[in-house]
Automatic annotation (TrEMBL):
It holds the Pfam family DUF846. The chain crosses the membrane at residues 29-48, 54-74, 121-142, 148-167. PANTHER family: GOLGI APPARATUS MEMBRANE PROTEIN TVP23, GOLGI APPARATUS MEMBRANE PROTEIN TVP23 HOMOLOG B. Its main location: membrane. The keyword Magnesium does not apply. GO terms for cellular component: Golgi membrane. It is found in: Membrane. Belongs to the TVP23 family. The keyword Transmembrane applies. It comes from the Eukaryota. It is a multi-pass membrane protein. The lineage of its organism: Eukaryota, Metazoa, Chordata, Craniata, Vertebrata. One of its GO terms (biological process) is protein secretion. This is Golgi apparatus membrane protein TVP23 homolog.
Amino acid sequence: SSDDIEDVSLFDADDDVSRRSKKSKIRHPVASFFHLFFRVSAIVVYLLCELLTSSFIACMVTIILLLSCDFWAVKNVTGRLMVGLRWWNQVDDDGKSHWVFEARKVSAQGSKTSSEAESRIFWLGLITCPMIWVIFAFSALFSFKVKWLAVVVMGVVLQGANLYGYIRCKVGSRKNLTSMATNYLGKQFLRQTVAKEDQTAS
């Protein structure tokens, strides 16, 4: 089934937040903390669990719980508060899949209400941690740690799903992404052509 893309305004958008400082102040310290806490904790537990305990089941359950808490918190809370984005997928009665993206309304002055510091923290955590889990996946595969492979795949899937959702939320649908890439390549080609013509004329 084909995916439909729908953009809607973020519910309960806080208009008064736009009056505060926008550059370096972290307005949501608790959200920023938990944005990194669950995902970093899952990585730390994965690295240290064999040193701390010999129970694989306890380690696996702890890591999956941390990854699940991270998935829910990032998808529903921290993305909304820190960068004004939220996404989800819903299936209607006909079985058709709909991607729904929420974005915080732009203030009357046309400025964004999220701070640069929070945005950096959000995107850095969102991109870096799935890359670490991919490294863990290759490490577990090549070292033949088959029992850990399932845990690592869960990390890649849960954190990769959030990354994919927010990238689509940020840049739009695949069609928009394709048109952006086409426009960029077209502009680069035009610039090179004009530069060559200028050099030839001079």
